[in-house]
Amino acid sequence: MMWSKTIEAGGKWSGNIGKGRLVRFTAQEAGANVSILLFNARDLTERYNMPDTLKAQYTARLTRGHTLMSDNGRVLASIVEDSLGWHDPIAGYTSRSLTDAKYGLTNYQQQRNDWLRSGQENFAVELVRSGLGMRDMMPVVNLFSKVSCDEEGDMHYDELHCPAGATVTLRTEMDVLLLLSNTPNPLDSRVVYPSVPVLVEVSEANVVDRDTDYCVHYRPENVRAFENTWEYQMLLGI
């Protein structure tokens, strides 16, 4: 294990992680939700693209085998392990107004570190740390959450989806800037702020076998995205 950190309820984090790393998330209690953003650490104009990720892989949920594609048709990270089988790429993140309306008014001046943070505010802070801003916000991936759609198109959040100890592991396929916000899924209907600690661990991944790797060959579109990524890195000499 190279590095580990527990993101407490309402917490946030961001940092650069090199390619060829495993980033393992473990829910320390039931009901976790961690929203993530991904950028190309070498070129922050390239970032996770939700529409391309979903349409290229014919899905509205993410699990093992799926890749997180960039807006340049490359692979930022792949999901290589998953104990849940469903992670939410469509519900977005919480705002200040939504957090106040659902869980009651709080602010730092009165509650100090016990105030209830929103995903929007957490990401705003972490984006600034890397020279970015809210204009760089985009759809997030909500790890540990299950959001399904019925025949009328209404979205439903499953409050019992994530047990304590649930895990999901990403493999970085490029040098990435990863941003995390441990804040509730906006569709979670619980009235008590539902955020629990999540352990993040980074270790070294095995070299990708281009002929047999599960994520590379999960969809034909994945192969093309990986080829774009390998070509990009070859020309950069990395």
From TrEMBL:
Pfam annotation, one family: DUF1989
Chain ranges of the DUF1989 domain: 6-177
Top-level taxon of the source organism: Bacteria
PANTHER family the record matches: RE64534P
Protein name: Urea carboxylase
Protein's organism: Paenibacillus radicis (ex Gao et al. 2016)
Taxonomic lineage of the native organism: Bacteria, Bacillati, Bacillota, Bacilli, Bacillales
